[in-house]
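Quick one, T. Sequence first:
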Amino acid sequence: QVQLVESGGGLVQAGDSLRLSCAASGRTFNSYYMGWFRQAPGKEREFVAAIRWSGGNTYSADSVKGRFTISRDGAKNTLYLQMNSLKPEDTAVYYCAATEINYKRWDYYTDGASYDYWGQGTQVTVSS
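Structure tokens:
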């Protein structure tokens, strides 16, 4: 069974940086796609970024391009989200997700329904 455990959230000020981690276990993830999503209070879940584990190809939401970077460390089975120049509107619970399905189009990975496994989330709060 795939398990995903996020960490690294916290309270920061606008303009600060934060790196989230997602420790993955239970499978070999070479054929997996993994993503980061976020959900702010009272809002819908929002896609942040996705990565193909094998090869490291990435896809990001326009709202975070140039500020957030998704990456992975295969040796550690860990997914990362480096967040720079944080803004108060980035405040949310951040979730990592995984699927072994190859949808062949990146836009499918922006939909949370495309993922089979989810972590419990980590809170990120950005003060102004």
